[in-house]
Predict the structure.
Amino acid sequence: MSYDNWGPQDLSSPAKRQLPEVPVERGMVLEDVQSGWVGAVTRVEKSGGMHIVVLEDRRGKSKSFRLGFGFLLDGQPVKLLPPAPRAAGTTGGAGAAQAGRTASGSVRVTGQRAQVAKASRIWVEGKHDAELVEKVWGDDLRVEGIVVEPLHGVDDLKAAIAEFSPGPGRRLGILVDHLVPDSKESRIAADAMTLPGAAGNVLIVGHPYVDVWQAIRPKVLGIEQWPTIARGTDWKTGILKSFGWPHETAEDIGLGWQKLLGAVRSYADLDPSLLGRVEEVIDFLTVP
């Protein structure tokens, strides 16, 4: 099928008038036919009397397009309409659940047999990190046979890597919180990479946040920015308190995280600083 004639000048084409008309929704993964740009809808704006849709690709880059014709949804041409009004109390949205795409934006693989887990692993700092990676990249990782395991902290990272015995065909990709220059985490990572066999078989990457919670875009939660928590206050406790949520027990922390995680529907809901690092780890473990 050729899309060479698609464009704003062809709005009177009978073929276009017959296309399915789909109200645009945040998280919907679309392809712009003329440029080939694929991305998730992050917002829709009205400018100069027209609606503009902003698509963000899986690397965190964004482009704006005029709403209307010239888009593919699940591989099929559609006419995009402005967002449909929501009924009170509904939270709809295409998000990650489109039939043709995974939550990470990858083309969904169907009919494939379950994979035997490979020896290579992804390690993350804790349970919440593992749950977030699973929610967005779980489908992709199951196709590749890669398992995500929580470390519950990186203080003993060097010993854990030594026990794992990395090597060709048995690689480690490690995602670390607060991996910034001169931090405790950066020194731990540098020391761990001095182990025999680590070079070329271990990749340690990280995001700049104190906790993986902050990798969720604030606007997804209906806030302008993450609250600043006073030094000396447990960060997660302080965050939940600032939201007015229960925060005094470990159960409160867990329930609070589930509410935050529930707001994440696709990679478009996460900050690029995390997206790029997870993609880098997956590539490291799966590319020969």
